[in-house]
Amino acid sequence: MRRTSGPLASAALLGVLVASLFPLYWSVVVASHDNAALSRRVPPLLPGAELPANAREVFGAVDFWAALGNSAAVAGIATASNVLLSTMAGFAFARLRFRGRDKLFAVVVTSAMVPAQLGVVPLFELVGDFGWYGELTAVVVPGLVSAFSVFWMRQACRESVPAELVDAARVDGCSVARTYWHVALPALRPHAVVLGMLTFLASWNDFFWPLVVLDPHRTPTVQIALSTLAGGYYTDHPLVLTGAVLGTLPVVLLFALTAKRIVAGLGRGAVGR
């Protein structure tokens, strides 16, 4: 028998939806007006016609095309490497038997509990020793894989890849690599899509570490470019929020393209098998 939500549940969901979308809507409203409109006693509540002009000003004030390209490169490499390496590590931790497996996994989980700020100074020194300061490599390499990604895929593998199926593949003569590629990876695909979206979003929105190691004038990312727009004695809010809207569009587009797979992956993880 199919259940339908009551009026209270529908009202609560509608409230959550409005609260979630209102910041984005308000950003579009502010980005589509000038400062004179925002300084009125009653601010505008509907989008205006200044968005194209503000967008041209954003691209003129900072090298926003380079910022978009740099962020896309960093987030894309981080997403691909995290999905690949974490699925391999998760499969090994979940379904392969080797000495010290549980202790090594405990080390991985423990490292996820250490605040990232504690590693900034030694990581910065390593970046300087390698000559990476000011280069995108300094941002890309530390984000190739994370403890959270390994933990996520290990739990997904334990749930979605039965041990009996792995044993049967090994009995049939499959190597570890073929078992991973033909047995584990297809089953992990929904979870990998979710992990990829989370990783892309985190890399795209990362601000602190790129601010430390990148040159904002030579290799900016989107977040650094937005901080440059917001700097100075006077903050042009329509200009800053226009940059924020432009920087959000790639993430929104990516989510729109992968929404069904993300919901399917989250649903599979919530229901279990």
Would you mind describing this structure in some detail?
The protein has 273 residues and is mostly helical. The protein has one domain: MetI-like (MetI-like fold, Orthogonal Bundle). Helix content is 74%, strand content 0%. Helix 4 runs antiparallel to helix 10, helix 4 crosses helix 12 and helix 9 crosses helix 10. It starts with 6 loop residues before the first helix and ends with a helix. The C terminus is likely disordered.
Topology:
Layout: H1 7-31, H2 35-38, H3 51-61, H4 64-95, H5 101-112, H6 120-130, H7 137-140, H8 147-160, H9 163-171, H10 176-205, H11 208-213, H12 222-230, H13 237-271
Features:
273 residues, MetI-like fold, MetI-like, membrane, mainly alpha, transmembrane helix, single chain
Report the principal-axis shape.
globular
Beta-strand fraction estimate: under 5%
Average pLDDT over all residues: 87
**Helicity range:** over 70%
- Compute the number of strand runs: 0
Distance between the termini: 22 Å
Number of domains: 1
How do the SSEs run, as a string of H and E?
Answer: HHHHHHHHHHHHH
- Unreliable stretches: 269-273
In CATH terms, the superfamily is: MetI-like
Largest sheet: none
Helical stretch count?
13
Q: Structural class of the secondary structure composition? A: mainly alpha
Instruction: Please give the radius of gyration in angstroms.
Output: 23 Å
CATH-scheme architecture:
Orthogonal Bundle
The CATH class is: Mainly Alpha
Q: In the CATH scheme, what's the topology name? A: MetI-like fold
